[in-house]
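Re: the request from the purification team.
They wanted to know what the chain is likely to look like in 3D before they choose a buffer screen. I agreed to run a prediction and write the result into the notebook, where they can find it.
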Amino acid sequence: MSDTHLNPQTLNGATSSAPAAVADLPPGELADPQTHFEVGQFYFLEAELLDDGRFADWLEMLAEDLQYWAPIRSNRLRRQQALSIAARGESAFYDETKESLAWRIRRYDSGMAWAEDPPSRTRHLVSNVTVRERSDGLLSARSAFLVYRNRLHTEVDVYAGGRTDVLRRSGIHGYEVVHRTILLEQNVLLMKNISTFF
């Protein structure tokens, strides 16, 4: 995790080896109720691991060819809304691979990430999960989240946003995240730093 101050620049220059088409393929029909249930349980377990600080276990839920991306937003007139979210290669809060996320976690565990020592307490709430089948055998899943973060005595932050995931049926939990796009509902985050996974 990072204690880098927030600014409209990419916080990590990592590039992904996964093809862009994995994320760009349009989703199909809604998945069956059993798949919706399984994906929901997958997300609840993910939230539990993050809130318990079990980041190494959380990494196991992510694919080796992961793309983890949180583009910045800008305020635009209604007719310019297509330009309100940064494109790939432009500014982002996160632009990560599984390897770069693992590096962040190792740094966090090293005691050198001063913004997280003592560590934050978080609570991830996940809702509004919809799952669709894709023609390539993967799943497209959307969810909403609210993340409460508290640190020391007076630091309190609340993040709200949505995630669009591409999931693969694999891994020890039945699924793994191949691609995640995180869209926060603020274009300027008021937090001192960003050191939370979504």
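For the purification team: Residues 33-51 form the longest helix (19 residues).
Please add any questions underneath this entry.
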